[in-house]
UniProtKB/TrEMBL annotation:
It comes from the Bacteria. Gene3D superfamilies: NAD(P)-binding Rossmann-like Domain. PROSITE patterns: ADH_SHORT (PS00061). Pfam families: adh_short. GO terms for biological process: monocarboxylic acid metabolic process. This is 3-oxoacyl-ACP reductase. The lineage of its organism: Bacteria, Pseudomonadati, Pseudomonadota, Alphaproteobacteria, Hyphomicrobiales. SUPFAM superfamilies: NAD(P)-binding Rossmann-fold domains. Belongs to the short-chain dehydrogenases/reductases (SDR) family.
């Protein structure tokens, strides 16, 4: 891959695992200095070390650490510290997200607020901190990781679906705001991706059904319903996100790019 992002600074939220980490690798391979921030569970202290070990071989600057996107002050502090290492943030990837099974009926306020505050409000906070600099430099790329469920819905996951639908509206508004200044904003909406969050959700479905089906049984049924008979891989989304940072992609904005393998669910 050509190093077309040399001297660009990138921030990836939720980048310690899954789609976020894959995108961070793609950007680093293209030459960007990459800051990765994600909520670090104290029980898993090696996550930050693992991210550095994954990104440093690409030879660019790396900043990684704990980031709780639900806290405006922490987001502001993280962006400031990241820019000391990586330079001005030219690329923002909002990949931080959580998902928990719970139907509308009886849905707790605590869980609803937690999901919306992470998935939607967290993206807004990161955009609010980084977008002014992009506008002033007249170049920027904002990529929000959404979901096909923003459009089709998903039983027992109303907060997740609402957060991704809200992210689509936020994406379109940011795209219009950035358009006169060389700043694009796009949402990538995959269907099922092979990540730890997907595996955890499948385990929750298995436990909730109580029919004796194992998580492997549930996963098999999901895969068999898909035309390509597989889950998407994080590397596929990373390739698309990296392409969207090219100069040739400067007119691709305000879009909801669905990556589905032929299935919206």
């Amino acid at each position: 891959m050509s190093r077309f992002l040399l001297n660009k600074g990138a921030l990836v939220t939720g980048g310690l695992t899954g789609v976020g980490l894959a995108i961070a690798e793609g950007l680093a391979e293209a030459g960007a200095n990459v800051a990765v921030g994600s909520f670090v569970n104290p029980a898993m202290p090696d996550f930050v070390k693992n991210v550095r070990e994954r990104l440093e071989p690409f030879g660019t600057k790396v900043f990684a650490g704990h980031l709780d996107v639900r806290n405006s002050g922490l987001v502001r502090e993280f962006v400031s510290e990241a820019q000391v290492v990586c330079g001005p943030i030219d690329i923002l990837v909002n990949a931080a997200g959580i998902c928990f099974e719970q139907p509308v009926s009886g849905h707790s306020d605590e869980l609803w607020d937690r999901i919306l505050d992470t998935n939607l409000n967290g993206a807004f906070r990161a955009m609010r901190e980084t977008m002014p600099g992009m506008i002033s430099r007249r170049w920027g790329r904002i990529i929000n990781i959404g979901s096909t469920y923003a459009n089709v819905g998903w039983a027992d996951n109303p907060a997740y679906c609402a957060s991704k639908s809200g992210m689509l509206g936020l994406t379109r508004c940011a795209a219009l705001e950035g358009a006169p200044h060389g700043v694009t904003c796009v949402m990538i909406s995959p269907s099922g991706v092979d990540t730890e969050m997907t595996r955890r959700t499948i385990k929750e479905i298995s436990e909730r059904e109580g029919k004796g089906r194992t998580p492997e049984d549930v996963l098999y049924d999901i895969i068999m319903r898909k035309p390509q008979k597989r889950l998407l891989q994080p590397s596929e989304l990373a390739a698309l996100a990296t392409f969207l940072c090219r100069e040739e992609a400067g007119s691709i904005t305000m879009e909801n790019i669905q990556v589905t393998g032929g299935s919206l669910t």
